[in-house]
Amino acid sequence: MNSATVLRRIATSLRKSSSSDSSPKYKLLYSRILSAIEKGEWAPGEKLPPETTFAQEIPLSLGTIQKALQMLADDGVVVRRHRDGTYVAGAVIIDEATIYRFLADDEKNLLPIYMFVLDVTHTDEEGPWSTFLKETSFVRITRRVSINVEFEAYNQVYLPAERFSAFLETPVHRLHGVSLEKVLGERHNAPILRTVQRMQITALPAHACQAIGMENGTVGMSWDVMAYSYRDTPITYQRIYLPPNDRQLEVREYRR
Fold first, then answer.
1. 129, CA 20 to 30 Å: which among 59, 84, 159, 215?
2. Residues 80 and 103 in one domain
3. Do 30 and 104 share a domain, yes or no?
4. Got the DSSP string for 145-185?
5. What is the per-residue pLDDT across 54-88, written as a single tens digit (0 to 9) for each?
6. Dihedral pair phi/psi, residue 50, rounded to 5°
7. Quick one: 82 and 35 in the same domain?
8. What does the alpha-carbon distance between residue 119 and residue 121 come to, in Å, rounded to a whole number?
């Protein structure tokens, strides 16, 4: 969409809300710009109009505009480049290599991983993902992950069904080896900006053991990865089951 059109919409929205919303003006502008990015009106990698253009179109001071843009930069939504301008942050924020970081024998390089999608389905199944995502209906993507063809992990990703129903219409074979995080950022304007990870030693569930060729009752690791997008909104919940193995796993906190 043309940036001038987006700016006019933002200006109109701000005028309408100025009399009913007592929030600081820079926060109102922050919210309007973020909404435009979430809707795809400004795409990842796209350059925003100059601050002076914002000031010409929007009934706010230059200082207020700069404060809103800096707040967006602090939250990882945009990138500000000195003497160049402000850009929407790139869509590829995090990928599976950031999660499945198994070290090779030299303890420096990472082992290759291979993704195989087993199933994509709609589910109302309740679990910790329900509480985290604050939803009752989900798209669940089940994957088998081969680490260097040495051992396999079992992975289920939960996404809010209302927003991500398009995954249900995608043939499974087209998702093999695909970074879901990249798809979320590039096609759904929902880049992952922060993760929280939790791990627990436990007996692997029977369905996971069957999928990755382990005996029922095998004790391994349950690994949950909770991801956040714009506005610190919960966006995906991953549960990974890892069997016993001799490889070191490097876990890095991720925060954009």
1. 215
2. no
3. no
4. EEETTTEEEEEEEEEEHHHHGGGGGS-GGGGTT--HHHHHH
5. 999 998 999 999 999 998 888 778 888 888 888 88
6. -60, 155
7. yes
8. 6
